[in-house]
Inverse folding.
C-alpha cells in the first residue's frame, strides 16, 4: 500500500462516517409538524381556501406527506416536508389576505366613484356639504 | 499512467465539487437578490417586518444548511420571501382601504345631508302647496256662502214681490166689487125714486190704488 493509497482510503473512511452520521435517524419532527398544522389552520381561518387555494392545497399535501414520512420513520423527510408545509401555509394566508385587501380596495374605489358621481350630478344646495 | 488517472479523478472531483458549490451559491444568490428586491422596494420597505425577518432567517439557514437540507431550505426561503412580499402588499392595500373607507364615510355623510336637505325642501314645497290649496278652498267656501246668501235674499225678495202683487190684486178686486155694488145701489135708488140712475158711486169711480213694489233685497 502506497502512502497515497492510504490517504485515499482514509478520506473515504471519513466521508463514509460523515455520511452515516448525516443519514442517521433523527427524532420525530413533532414541533415542525405542529407548526405546519398551525399554519394550515390559520390559512384556512383567513379564507385561503377561497382566495389562495393552490397554496393551501400545496401546504395540505406536504403536511400529509410529512405525516406519512414520519409514520414510516423517515424523520428527515418528515421535517423537510413539515417545514415546506408551514411555509406554504403561511404563504397561503398572506396571499389570501392580499387578495381580500385588494378586493376591498376595488369595492370601495367603485363605491366612492358612484357616490362622487351621484354628488356631482345632483349636488347639495349649500357648498359646505361638499366633501 | 496511474498518475494521470489519479490526477484526472482528483480534477473531476474538484470540478464536481466546484460545480455543486457554484450551484449552491447561485441558488443562494438568486434568493438573496429576490429578498433584497423586496426589502429595498420603496413601497414595501416599511411593511411586513415580521415576515421579512423570517425570510431573512431562512436565507441565513440556507447559507449554513447541510447539503441534504439545502433543497428544503431553498423551498422554504422562496416561499417566505413570497409571503413577505404578499404581506407587505396586503398591508399597503389595507392602508389604502382605510383611506378609501374614510373617503367613503365622508361621501356617505355628504349624500345623506344632501338627501335630507332635499327632503326638507320638498316637504316645505308640499307644505306651501297645501297652504295654497287650503286658502283657495277657504276662498271658494266663502264665495259659495256669499252666493248662497244672495240666492236666499233674492228668493225672499221674489216671494215678497209675489205677496205684494197678490195683495194688490185682492185690493183691486175688492174695489171693483165695491164699485159694482155702489152702481147697483145707485140704480136701485133711482128705480125707487123714479130718477135716472146717478153715475156710479165715488168708490166705483176711484180706480184701485196700485201698490208700489218694494225693491227687492229689503
Amino acid at each position: 500500500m502506497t502512502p497515497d493509497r492510504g490517504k485515499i482510503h482514509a478520506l473515504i473512511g471519513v466521508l463514509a462516517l460523515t455520511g452515516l452520521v448525516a443519514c442517521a435517524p433523527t427524532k420525530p419532527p413533532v414541533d415542525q409538524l405542529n407548526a405546519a398544522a398551525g399554519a394550515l389552520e390559520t390559512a384556512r381561518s383567513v379564507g385561503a381556501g377561497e382566495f389562495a387555494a393552490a397554496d393551501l392545497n400545496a401546504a395540505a399535501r406536504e403536511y400529509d406527506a410529512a405525516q406519512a414520512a414520519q409514520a414510516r420513520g423517515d424523520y428527515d423527510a418528515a421535517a423537510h416536508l413539515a417545514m415546506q408545509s408551514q411555509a406554504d401555509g403561511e404563504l397561503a394566508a398572506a396571499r389570501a389576505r392580499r387578495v381580500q385587501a385588494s378586493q376591498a380596495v376595488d369595492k370601495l374605489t367603485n363605491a366612492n366613484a358612484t357616490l362622487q358621481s351621484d354628488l356631482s350630478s345632483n349636488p347639495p344646495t349649500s357648498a359646505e356639504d361638499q366633501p | 499512467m496511474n498518475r494521470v488517472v489519479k490526477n484526472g479523478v482528483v480534477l473531476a472531483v474538484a470540478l464536481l465539487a466546484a460545480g455543486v458549490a457554484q450551484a449552491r451559491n447561485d441558488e443562494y444568490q438568486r434568493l438573496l437578490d429576490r429578498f433584497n428586491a423586496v426589502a429595498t422596494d420603496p413601497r414595501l420597505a416599511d411593511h411586513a417586518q415580521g415576515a421579512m425577518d423570517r425570510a431573512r432567517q431562512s436565507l441565513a439557514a440556507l447559507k449554513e444548511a447541510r447539503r441534504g437540507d439545502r433543497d428544503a431550505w431553498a423551498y422554504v426561503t422562496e416561499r417566505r420571501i413570497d409571503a413577505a412580499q404578499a404581506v407587505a402588499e396586503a398591508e399597503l392595500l389595507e392602508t389604502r382601504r382605510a383611506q378609501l373607507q374614510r373617503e367613503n364615510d365622508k361621501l356617505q355623510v355628504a349624500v345623506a345631508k344632501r338627501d335630507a336637505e332635499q327632503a326638507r325642501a320638498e316637504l316645505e314645497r308640499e307644505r306651501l302647496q297645501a297652504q295654497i290649496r287650503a286658502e283657495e278652498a277657504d276662498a271658494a267656501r266663502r264665495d259659495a256662502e256669499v252666493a248662497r246668501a244672495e240666492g236666499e235674499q233674492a228668493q225672499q225678495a221674489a216671494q215678497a214681490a209675489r205677496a205684494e202683487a197678490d195683495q194688490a190684486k185682492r185690493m183691486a178686486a175688492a174695489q171693483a166689487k165695491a164699485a159694482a155694488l155702489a152702481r147697483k145701489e145707485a140704480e136701485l135708488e133711482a128705480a125707487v125714486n123714479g130718477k135716472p140712475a146717478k153715475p156710479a158711486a165715488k168708490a166705483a169711480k176711484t180706480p184701485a190704488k196700485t201698490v208700489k213694489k218694494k225693491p227687492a233685497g229689503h
Summary: Chain A has a mean pLDDT of 87. The interface with chain B takes residues 4, 22-23, 76, 79-80, 83-84, 86-88, 90-91, 93-95, 97-98, 101-102, 104-105, 108-109, 111-112, 115-116, 118-119, 122-126, 129-131 of chain A (CB under 8 Å).
